[in-house]
């Protein structure tokens, strides 16, 4: 079968790899129909994060179950499924607690494991990891494209909003206009935020933020952006979603936070070397909550909303490629020609 | 009158300064009877933090009201009072919210303002800032020495415990065996923690931690200390009190935190330049809460406990000096000859 493989900075190739097989009785094999390229993939693509070479890539799998191991009880071949970017056994302390990303079983997608940007994957702990999409929707392309972001970015944006403590009637500031930031806007609105202020650098993305319910947008940079956001919030917001993971965005998030407020952070910290934000956190008693999003904890709720048509993150996909187009997908994301790339395998 | 004045690294002098006067109708003048030297004073004493030279020092005032301005309603000359290290108007959004350290009135002790290590201070916003000690206890020296830590370190340790989410039955780890860390142990026990594990480097201080209710102590350093604390907590603690503010202690706090746990931080960040702890915070979804302690919010509750004899942080004072002995007090703190120095003016 074919799959995308990372060979070094800027070098993604689609090439032949071995077909996956059931190795453990808790495994499933899934034929991928849809997947995506993630902003967090860009860190290794740009050589800013270590990654195995050659290394399989992609961590947003959606497809159809082809085979299941003997111990898999809630899935059958033919089931339409999606998987969070993290694998979870579903039974350990942390899975029981809803913190699926801290599952004691240390498995994942990509690297030395199978990657979602390929024809098939072996899915470990299938009962714990895979989420079944009801049969009624299994072949509805529009629904599937709205469901796909639940594998990562939509649940990640939701985690930012939940971690920032957003509740009905609140004012929230979202730092970042990438796919996660846009999903953060959707999530904050879904939680009932009265005002959502989206901060970013790209007019076309801030237009999507408005489509997603942002009541105001701030397109300025640096100090000017912070001042504008503070003006709009009469001195700072109690709920800030940090959806980038860069040093400047962390600093911005803590700068626009109101004393006593909370920053919900979900951007993979990349290049946050200096802890300058800590001074604001300390002086203003601004809490930092969040981290890698426990998608499995959120996906059932959000899936219900997508299926009933009240949640649709699919506009974040501004470009679609097939499996052979994955390298072009990375290029487009890297050069910001696309917000997020949908891969139809 | 005489007061201690900072003249540069390692140089504290007791010298003549102008007597304070009522300047605003909301002021009081307080004759200091007791104050202390704080671990956070060591940062400028060691030249590790900018500070005005010459600059008045001390931010833990306790004494007797000498005069009040026309608008002061709840204090009279002769009242025995203490003041938190932060001044608060008591009326703004943040004071109303209990976040007195973010009071919109930007006043403080020390620097260009009066410092507590002196014969008298002008206390701005006296109604909002000063806390009256009931007359019955006003001349009981033992009580007063147990009350004095409420001006800062006891409430700061309490803020660490509250911020870390400590509740009855919990297991808490306290990082740091300075006065704040020791008060953190007291605070965690007072909140009902079942196990309190104190981490530090000084046997004599860890003995005080045990006296304060620590069920276990870890005296090792670095990786060994982290491993020992993780062993004791079967993989990490849900509630960690960071009571130092150094880079290594922040890293330790996040390292010993259990996935999904919370670090309550109250050590003034000093020398935390690298944000290495952020990787743990992100990967394990460990929250960071706390900051500069809103003492005024806590002092009434804790004062009640001190007055009824169920809370006594006074063993942190391992050395007592008079006003002329303040320079020697700094030296003793700096060289770790004393945990905390009591100043009887």
UniProtKB/TrEMBL annotation, chains A, B:
<dbReference type="InterPro" id="IPR036291">
    <property type="entry name" value="NAD(P)-bd_dom_sf"/>
</dbReference>
<dbReference type="GO" id="GO:0044281">
    <property type="term" value="P:small molecule metabolic process"/>
</dbReference>
<dbReference type="GO" id="GO:0004022">
    <property type="term" value="F:alcohol dehydrogenase (NAD+) activity"/>
</dbReference>
<dbReference type="InterPro" id="IPR002328">
    <property type="entry name" value="ADH_Zn_CS"/>
</dbReference>
<dbReference type="InterPro" id="IPR013149">
    <property type="entry name" value="ADH-like_C"/>
</dbReference>
<dbReference type="Pfam" id="PF08240">
    <property type="entry name" value="ADH_N"/>
</dbReference>
<feature type="domain" description="Alcohol dehydrogenase-like C-terminal">
    <location>
        <begin position="179"/>
        <end position="292"/>
    </location>
</feature>
<dbReference type="Pfam" id="PF00107">
    <property type="entry name" value="ADH_zinc_N"/>
</dbReference>
<dbReference type="GO" id="GO:0030554">
    <property type="term" value="F:adenyl nucleotide binding"/>
</dbReference>
<feature type="domain" description="Alcohol dehydrogenase-like N-terminal">
    <location>
        <begin position="25"/>
        <end position="134"/>
    </location>
</feature>
<dbReference type="GO" id="GO:0043168">
    <property type="term" value="F:anion binding"/>
</dbReference>
<comment type="similarity">
    <text>Belongs to the zinc-containing alcohol dehydrogenase family.</text>
</comment>
<dbReference type="GO" id="GO:0008270">
    <property type="term" value="F:zinc ion binding"/>
</dbReference>
<protein>
    <submittedName>
        <fullName>Alcohol dehydrogenase</fullName>
        <ecNumber>1.1.1.1</ecNumber>
    </submittedName>
</protein>
<dbReference type="InterPro" id="IPR013154">
    <property type="entry name" value="ADH-like_N"/>
</dbReference>
<keyword id="KW-0479">Metal-binding</keyword>
<keyword id="KW-0862">Zinc</keyword>
<keyword id="KW-0560">Oxidoreductase</keyword>
<dbReference type="InterPro" id="IPR011032">
    <property type="entry name" value="GroES-like_sf"/>
</dbReference>
């Amino acid at each position: 079968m074919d799959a995308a493989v990372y060979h070094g900075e800027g070098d993604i190739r689609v090439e032949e790899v071995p077909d996956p097989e059931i190795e453990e009785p808790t495994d499933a094999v899934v034929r991928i129909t849809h997947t995506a390229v993630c902003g967090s993939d860009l860190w290794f693509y740009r050589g800013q994060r270590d990654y195995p070479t050659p290394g399989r890539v992609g961590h947003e799998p959606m497809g159809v179950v082809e085979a299941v191991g003997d111990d898999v009880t809630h899935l059958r071949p033919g089931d339409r499924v999606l998987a969070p970017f993290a694998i979870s056994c579903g039974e350990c302390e942390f899975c029981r607690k809803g913190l699926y990303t801290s599952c004691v079983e240390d498995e994942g997608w990509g690297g030395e494991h199978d990657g979602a940007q390929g024809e098939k994957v072996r899915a470990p702990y299938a009962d714990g990891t895979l989420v079944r999409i009801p049969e009624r929707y299994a072949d509805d392309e529009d629904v599937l494209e709205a469901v796909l972001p639940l594998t990562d970015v939509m649940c990640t944006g939701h985690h930012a909003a939940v971690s920032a403590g957003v509740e009905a009637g609140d004012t929230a500031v979202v730092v970042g206009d990438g796919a996660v930031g846009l999903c953060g806007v959707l999530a904050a609105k879904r939680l009932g935020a009265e005002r959502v202020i989206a901060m970013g650098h790209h007019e076309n993305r801030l237009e999507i933020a408005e489509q997603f319910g942002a009541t105001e947008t701030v397109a300025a940079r640096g100090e000017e952006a912070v001042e504008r956001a503070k003006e709009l919030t009469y001195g700072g917001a109690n709920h800030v979603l940090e959806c980038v993971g860069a040093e400047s965005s962390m600093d911005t998030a803590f700068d626009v936070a109101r004393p006593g407020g909370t920053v919900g952070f979900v951007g993979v910290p990349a290049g946050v070397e200096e802890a300058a934000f800590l001074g604001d956190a300390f002086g203003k008693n601004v809490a930092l909550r969040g981290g890698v999003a426990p998608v499995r904890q959120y996906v059932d709720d959000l899936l219900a909303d997508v299926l009933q048509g009240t949640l649709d993150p699919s506009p974040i996909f501004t470009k679609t490629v097939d499996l052979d187009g994955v390298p072009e997908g990375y290029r487009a994301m890297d050069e910001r020609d696309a917000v997020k790339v949908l891969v139809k395998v």
